[in-house]
Structures are given as structure tokens and as C-alpha cells.
Amino acid sequence: MTDHTSKVLRVGALARVEGEGALYLCLQDGEVAEARLAIYEPPRFFEAFLRGRSYREPPDITARVCGICPVAYQMSACRAIEDACGVVVGGQLAALRRLLYCGEWIESQTLHIYLLHAPDFLGADSATDLARTHHADVERGLRLKQAGNAIVELLGGRAIHPINARLGGFHRLPTPSELRPLAEQLRRARDDAAATARWVADFDFPDAGCDHDLLALAEPGTYAIESGTPTVMISPSGAGLPADTNRALPTRTFDVCEFDDHVVETQVPHSTALHSRLDGHRHLTGTLARYAISGRWLSPIALEAAQDAGLGNPREGAVCRNPFRSIVVRAIEVLYAVDEALRIIDAYEPTPRACVDVPPRAGTGYGATEAPRGMLYHRYSMRDDGTITDASIVPPTAQNQGAIEHDLLRLVQERLGSGQPTDAELAFLCEKAIRNHDPCISCSAHFLNLTVLREGRSASIRDGGRDSQR
Amino acid sequence: MSAEPDHRARRPKLAVWKFASCDGCQLTLLDCEDELLGIAENMEISYFLEASSAPGPGPYDLSLVEGSVTTQHDAERIQHIRNVSSRLVTIGACATAGGVQALRNYADVAEFLAVVYARPDYIETLATSTPISAHVPVDFELRGCPIDRGQLIEVIVAFLAGRTPNVPAHSVCFECKRRGNVCVTVAHGTPCLGPVTHSGCGALCPTYGRGCYGCFGPSNSTNFGAFIPLLRRDGMNTLDVVRVLRTFNTAAPEFDAASRKELRQ
Fold this sequence. Notes:
- The structure holds 2 protein chains of 2 kinds.
- By secondary structure, chain A is an alpha+beta fold.
- Chain A is built from 14 helices and 16 strands.
- Chain A has helices at residues 46-49, 58-62, 70-84, 91-122, 127-133, 135-156, 176-201, 259-262, 287-294, 300-308, 326-347, 396-417, 423-435, 441-444, and strands at residues 6-11, 21-28, 31-39, 165-166, 169-170, 213-218, 229-233, 251-253, 263-266, 275-278, 283-285, 363-371, 374-382, 388-394, 450-454, 457-461.
- In chain A, strands 1, 2, 3, 15 and 16 form a 5-stranded mixed sheet that branches.
- The two termini of chain A are 30 Å apart.
- Chain B is an alpha/beta fold.
- In chain B, helix 12 (238-245) packs antiparallel against helix 13 (253-264).
- Chain B is globular and about 60 Å long.
- In chain B, strand 3, helix 4 and strand 4 form a beta-alpha-beta unit.
- The longest helix of chain B is centred in the middle third of the chain and has 13 residues, at 149-161.
- The interface between A and B is large, with 75 and 72 residues.
- Chain B: InterPro entries: Hydrogenase_assoc-protein (IPR051349), NADH_UbQ_OxRdtase-like_20kDa (IPR006137), NiFe_Hase_small_N_sf (IPR037024).
């Protein structure tokens, strides 16, 4: 019996992602009826228990949403609360915030490239498995990741949940003599980052496209990281073009205080993460979106590496819509971040005060920054004594969930069209598609469960030690 | 070359498990950049879904558990993990003291659900966030939000050597003195939880000029009767004191008791 009417494939524990998730595929008459990425990370209620806390606390508390990108939470929280208080942090303090963020970009994106994503392209199960065949490459990755951590550790005190960021700036500023050895480490890291871009550019990539609106911050003159205006690049189908169109399409912008009007969260029964739509459309935020919107502002060394890696010239409108090649774009972003960190250190001049005053006042503030996985939005309302009355956090993975499900649907449909894949093949294909987007499921509220229904029965793949029943 | 497979076959099996948490403590293992490949030489990293897509079957010699128990399913899962683990070590404030999500223990969870979700009925959760030790016997608890990389390596090395980890339980003040820091409370009147907080971070916050906020939880001897008046002297009111005790280690018995007492007064 080869013809099956209906089947459900369920991946029991998604590996090499950050957070807990499950995948559910429902196939009917050779067609994919449904692809659902279910996030079952238990809810932790940050938005609820921030109410009644002091306005000074969200940078420390929201860092605990995610151990992978705590700096992103700290920076979005600072921006939103400073916005409510009418304070803008500029000059060297803003430059040091960008340096801290570059550190997180380097360590987090390198973690994804070497430890989570590269094993997919080289037939390994893990980086330690990969180290048996590609020892020097893995060592280079760990060294590069260490350089990112070194920035966060110096500026933030420690790599995970840094303690030195605060409203208005920092508790303590680094001295130029502390930054000197860091610059030495970063110069070596710049060579490692360039070598990484060359390494991943040679991987074997399937042809694929993604037909989503792209959302990223834009700040003309620089590759937006810690500030900028939300900018949307329309999807290929919105322009009447095929999904794999690799050139820039028209963009529109909106003010960050209008974020809630444009990005609307809805809840779906299968997930503890909220889904969101951008002006009613499915959208993608993160590496591919940022590169499409800010690619023209890459530094010369990163721009040259992008072209050498086959991504074309973003100054001439080249973008990348192949999710599998996100690993190449990510490597370019790492190279950029290392180069940018060196530029900031070279230009650093100590200022007399480690922070500016942020006096409380009644009102609502909005802040968005570019976490390694995409745009992270915070909104806080507070009373005049600085007591928080309302908090809203929209992480990138919740925004990307719809786009990831759409990618899964397309890929599985294509695979079904070219033969009869086994459940294990489908599971691996789906896991790869999900890892393309580096979802941080902890942020959303770790592992993926994949379930497939075949001829009325369901198969569950890789549950490890966990019970498959959810 | 022929001897190597036999050596590998005898390596102890390591498993890393996750409950409600931010992933930061298990990431600490991946952040051991200089030691990670060495650890993988000496231990078979058998079950670690964040790092490997080929989970190996139990039983496991050492299980590291991150996160707190917040769902009925997780309360059942930790029993299974205990059954397949020779040694079980909790890593971090969530697994050891319920984590920041234990703030629900003081609140109406139905109301919390309504704040975050339009359809609370889709969400399964317990009314409490509890440490792993509330559910199964634990062989060692490693403190910290997040844990310290050096202490994690000490726990793994101690396990391989068959000895108790050398993780002192004294207060952050000892580490501050050892670093030669000027006391932020004495010199600047900055409220600091150092006197009642477990060591392990290297007195990070005072080194950066701010007061300790207690992310390693209570030290082995705390004197809140003497300590809280010091916080008040430095400008904190009752709600400030309660808030600072009720953050990342809110369900640690000492912090919980001190915050409840404060509210009664």
C-alpha cells in the first residue's frame, strides 16, 4: 500500500536549537495539510511579574528571558524605559552599548554557525562529533566565540546575564588599558571570522527561497544593531515575483511606538508562544531580513567577504532569500561585528560619567533592537515614581514562527513531489529547515517533537528521555 | 589507535536536561570554549539536545539538570530522569531555587495567565515553580543565575575524580575581600546583598561598582536580623527590601522567609 490518505509526522525533540519545541506534520493524499511548530517551553510570565517592579529592574530581570541573548533583552529594555523617561543615551556610552551588543552577536551567531548549524551540512550530529573530522575548524569556531564572550565579559562582567548594563549607560566604564588586550584578541578574531565566511560559503546549499515580508531596523549610515527605525521589505509575491528573487524590493517604515499597530500577536492552541502578523502578512525577522535592509551599510571588509562568498553586492541591491544560506549571511554579520567592535575600541575615549541620569516620569516607552535572531521589541508603562504598570515583550522567534511553518510546508511538499521519503528523512529535513532560522524557543516562552500521521496512525521521532505525550 | 575505542566505550555518560529556564546554565557548558573538547574526550556527551541531534539512551552516569518544575508533565519527567541517572546535579537558580518564574508562587496564576495570554485555557501550567529537590533527591546543587563556568568545570572534574566538588558556601563578602574591593556599602552607602549571598560569582557586582543583587541565592549562614536594618539605613523601604529578596532566588527558603517576615512587619 503506497497510497496513503492521511498521516501525521511528529518530531519528538528538536535538537540543536535553543528552547523546547515540537513539530507536527499532517499529510493528506500526498499533500501537506498542515505544518505546525509547537513551542511547549513552559510559560514563565515575565510580562505579568514585571508589573509592580521598579523601572530600574527590567534590564536585569528580562535578561533572564534568554541566556543566549541577554544583552538584547537588556538593550531593548533600556531603550524602552529611557524612551518613557525622555532620555537619549549618546556619544561614547552609546558606542560602548553597541560594542557590548557586537560581543553578543559574535558569540551567539558563532555558536549557531559552528555548534548548531554546520553539523547539518557536514553530516555530523554535534560539534564534538564534527571535531573528529574538522578539528581545526571547530577550534576556530570556539576561538571566535570566545572573542565575542570576551567583549561581553569585559564590558558586562560575565558572558551570560551581564551585570554592568543599566539605564543611562553602565555601572563602570572600561579603561583604555583594559580594552587593549581585547583589541589584540579581536584582530585575530577578524581573521577567524573571514576564514569562517570562506568555510561556510563552500557548503552545499539546496535551491530555496522564502516568500515573506522582511522586518528589520534600519539606520542609514550604519548596519542597524542597537537602534533604528522598523523597516519592512515586501515579499516577492507582494511584488508579483518568485520566492527566490535575490534582489531588493520596495520598503516602508513605521515608528517603533507604532509597533503594536503593525505587529499583531495572536495565540494559537498548539503553542505557548504567541504568533504575530505584520500588517496582516506573514513576516520574517533576523539575519536574512537585516542583510536585505542594512546590507549596503556593511564595512568594506565585510562587503568584500559577502561578494567573495557568492552573496552578490548588497550596495547594488543583492539580497539573500535562501534560508539554507543564512549560515553564510550570519558569517558575514560576525565578520562585520568583529570589525565594528575594533572600530569602536579604536575610537574610544573615556567619558567622565559611566551613565546619564534617568529620572522616572509617568508614561509609556517603546524600544526595539536587533537581537541576533531578529527584532526584539519592549514596551513599558510606568507611574511617576517609576513603578511599572504594564510590560509587553515581543521576541523574534514568536514573530518568525509563521514564516518557519510556511518554509516547512513548502519544503515537505517539494520533497513529497520527488519520491516517498521515510519519516526519518522528513524529520531531518524539517529540523534543518528550522535550524536555518536559529529559533530561540526559550525567548518565546527547547527541543522539537515531530509527529507524522501515516495512514491514520501517528509516528513519533526522537523523544529521548522525554515522554512523547504532550 | 586500536586501544582508543575501548577507552571511549568506558567514558562516563553525561546528560543535560532542561526544565523551565532561559538555557543560560546549559549554555555555560558550551561557553567552556577552552575545555569543551577536553570534556568530550573524557565523558561521552550522551544526551544534550541543545548541542547534539543524536541523543544516546540511558542510564547516565551524570545528569545536569537546568530549570524548575512548572508543569505536571515536568513533575513526572524529573522522576524518570532521576531513575536513569546515577548522579543528579542541579545547575542554576531555577533548578536549585525555582528561578525568577517562582514569583508566581506569591501571585494568582490565573491572573498571570490572563495578563500574558488571550486564551489562558490553551496553556498548561502549575500554580507554582519549584526546585528539583522538591521532587527528587539531588546529589549536588550548583548555585547561580547563571552558574559560574569555573564552578561547573569543578563539578565535572570532581565527578570524574570521584570526590565532592570544592564549591565554598560562604558569602560574597569573602570574595570581595579576596579581590581587594572597597566595600560599596561601607564606602558609598550602596545597598548590597553580599553579606547574605552565596559566593561563586567572584563578587562581580561590587567589582563593577554596584551592590550585589543576590543571583547566587542565600549563603550557608545568613543573619537577616542584622542585615535588613542595614538596607533600611541605605534608603530601602519595605517594598524595596521585599523586591530585592524576591527576584532570581525567590523560592530559596531563607530569602522567602525573610521577605514574608518583612511584609508582616
